[in-house]
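Morning F.,

Quick status update on the modeling queue. The single chain you submitted on Monday has been processed. Sequence for confirmation:
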Amino acid sequence: MEYSRRMDGYELHESKRAKRMSVTVYPNGRVRVSKPVRVSREKVEAFVAKQQDWIARTQAKFLRHSGGQLPIPLPKPRRGSKAYKEAVEAARTLVHERLTFYSSLYGFPYGLVSIRNQRTRWGSCSAAGNLSFNYKIAFLPPALADYIVVHELCHTKEHNHSERFWKLVERAVPEHKALRKELRTRYLL
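Structure tokens below.
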């Protein structure tokens, strides 16, 4: 069994599969501590106290890399809720509209399109040309959503991040470098 709960200044995640304690700092400054089941709260607190300097340095580094701007948290509706279903449908509509437009511009065919609740990716492209997008694309500004759609569509021709790939992306999104940086530093999954 796994569970998470909020503690003072961090989120505690307990897992039977965990072999040791670990701490993760996310770009938005959130701190997550993972622990094996049998580790006591006292040991967790001592572990976190030892990591405080590293946690503070890492949070400061993320703040510097984002140009001093705090990341923008996106809505996270509960899976299965009405808000979640509406977000998935909004993402599906957006993705299909933009794919239709960019596919005709590039002349690139693509396979199946799916909308998912991915924790770490905005999108992906399979070897068969099937495209998958995170439902949170519906919450992004249009330029960022377009960048993600173009990025994945271009992977149907170039399954890598080579210079040829970026030249393809640049045809429709000349400001892709700035958009990619903004996506990575300001918008958190």
